[in-house]
Predict the structure of histidine kinase.
Amino acid sequence: MLNIRGILARSILYFLLISLVSSIFAFTFFFTAEVIDVPGRYGRMSILVVVSLIVVIALDPLKRLLSRITDDIFYKDRIDYQSVLREISIIIAREIDLEILLTTLKDALRSKLKLKAADILVKRNHGFTSLATDKSARKAMHSDNPLIEYIYDKKELIITDEFYRQTYDMPEGDERHKKQQVLDELERQGIEFCLPVVLEGDLKALIILGQKQSGDIYGNEEVRFFNNLAPQIAVALEKAQLYESIGEFNLKLQDKINRATQKLKDQTVELQDANAHLKQLDTAKSEFLSIASHQLRTPVSALKGYLSMMLEGDFGTVEPKQRQVLADLFESAARLARLINIFLNVSRIESGRFKLDKTMTDVNALVDSVMKELSGQAVSKGITITFVRDQKLPQLYADSDKIREVVLNIVDNAIKYTPHGKIDIKTFKENGAIHFTSTDTGIGIRPEEANSLFRKFVRGTGIAQVNTQGSGLGLYIAHRVVSEHGGRIWVESKGLGEGSTFHFTVPIVKKPADAPDMLADAKAKRKRTEKKV
Ligand SMILES: Nc1ncnc2c1ncn2[C@@H]1O[C@H](COP(=O)(O)OP(=O)(O)OP(=O)(O)O)[C@@H](O)[C@H]1O
Ligand SMILES: [Mg+2]
């Protein structure tokens, strides 16, 4: 291609340069001969040599200066592709949103390269579509479009002008017919330049340019420029598409989270309803337990009292045969009374009415009375109970009825869960507390169950086969009683068949000054016992 403008600019440049140099030499001659009149041939010669040297040194900068001036005049609308490439690279590096990236790129190409139209179409379902949202965006081209078919096939740059020449230089035939169709499409859409953007052999997008504003045709400079730009665009598209797919993934994830949260909320509401219902049932059960126990307590106490009196001979001599029957009946009545007490205590705990009624308490005396109450049971099983007491055990300021129930349940358990052997009970003072232990040679406890036995309704695995009588509430109440007194209750056992040792401690606290004195305590206690019987 003949660059007339370039030849003209260079000619003017050299003309100006030669004129300038000639003028300098002409002026030097004139000046040395006519104005300062340098004498002698050698004098003028030496001035000429000096001037020549200066001209040689200054020639190159002078040439560059003149070249810039002529270029500015002749190439006013010339594009600095290097700086355009830099600017566009910055846009590509900065933008991650696919739509914004493509719209910005398209506008930058059009304005900076001084084009009538520019667009970047991205691949969508084998066709190509513009993501730009403005009016200048091109219509989508589907996979059956001849241009798209050609691009898929060749994956090469098309400059319409050259393509036109190639097509008409070809002999008639299928190939030419195909190219003719592509050409028609290019002309129909006003496309002058079409470059496929390929990444690792995969067609990603098409850079489509319309006419230049200058009317010039696309040349090597544009081809170089776009060959540099296309890989950058390919990578940027990949990055933006990845970002887009992450966005879609996030949306899907958010949707799933929302649905799961809603489901959870629904389930929570259902659970709350079920919980409220269960609470109602539990309250009803506790109320029933409380009413039933209260109703049963008085007749059972009377039964127990009369049976005891009969056994004591208060109603006349009792035949040995009758005595055995009466003793069995007393035993059953006592067990029933204990059960009622347990139920009453549980219902008190659950309704928050569980309170301590503290008086000065002699723990050793409590143990004695428990042993007396349970001796029949122990004897019938052939179990011996020994009690090693600390004679100097101080009195406890505690709820004596409830502490007695704790001792009663522990010793009752020891008898119940010891098929044969013995039970050793001890009381002693240790670290400011009264310590009670009961060691039996019974069935023992699995170590992993030792702590859970103090929970409500919990019985040892398979215990129902050993002993059917039991609700799993005795230790639960005992734990509550001891805790309320600031003490601790626990069990030690080496395992099944190894016996068990139950411990509880209650700290020895001083009786507050405003509490009733010992005598009054004893009186009050006696009154309560009389009432019960
Ligand atoms: N001395 C013991 N030896 C072996 N197991 C025991 C002993 N004491 C308690 N257990 C186990 O602990 C469980 C809970 O005892 P807890 O006194 O709370 O209930 P229970 O004796 O079964 O019934 P109740 O409510 O009538 O007292 C018992 O069922 C039993 O499995
Ligand atoms: Mg028990």
Summary: The longest helix spans residues 220-312. The chain is about 60% helix and 15% strand. The two ends are 130 Å apart (CA to CA).
